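[step 3/7] inverse_fold.run input=structure_tokens len=107
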């Protein structure tokens, strides 16, 4: 967990528990079900995504950085501009910096 500008973040490699997790690791599903954060950042699926789950819970996946990926998405990365009132999320293509997805999260 991390708190920035009044937002509560959770960062996980996977959106759900994984067989490589330790028994003592926090379960991502629990974080989401119990709304223990406002912004859930994850990877693993390689699918870029910005999703509003409800009024105070967002999921963000920046995508992947591999030149070749079997899931059909180009290499992407995310930038977040965080203020107390909002988070501007931009997911951009790695090779060109071209905007791929964007959204502004609000409290």
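[step 3/7] decode complete -> sequence:
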């Amino acid at each position: 967990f991390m708190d920035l500008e009044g937002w509560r973040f959770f960062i996980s490699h996977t959106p759900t528990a994984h067989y490589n997790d330790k028994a003592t690791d926090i379960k991502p599903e629990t974080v989401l079900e119990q709304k223990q954060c406002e912004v859930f950042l994850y990877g693993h699926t390689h699918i870029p995504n910005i999703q509003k789950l409800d009024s105070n819970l967002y999921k963000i996946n920046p995508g992947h950085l591999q030149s070749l990926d079997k899931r059909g998405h180009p290499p992407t990365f995310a930038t977040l501009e965080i203020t107390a009132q909002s988070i501007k999320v931009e997911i951009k293509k790695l090779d060109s910096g071209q905007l791929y997805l964007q959204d502004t999260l609000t409290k």
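[step 4/7] annotate
Strands lie at 2-4, 7-12, 39-42, 49-54, 57-61, 76-82, 86-93, 99-106.
DSSP finds one helix and eight strands in the chain.
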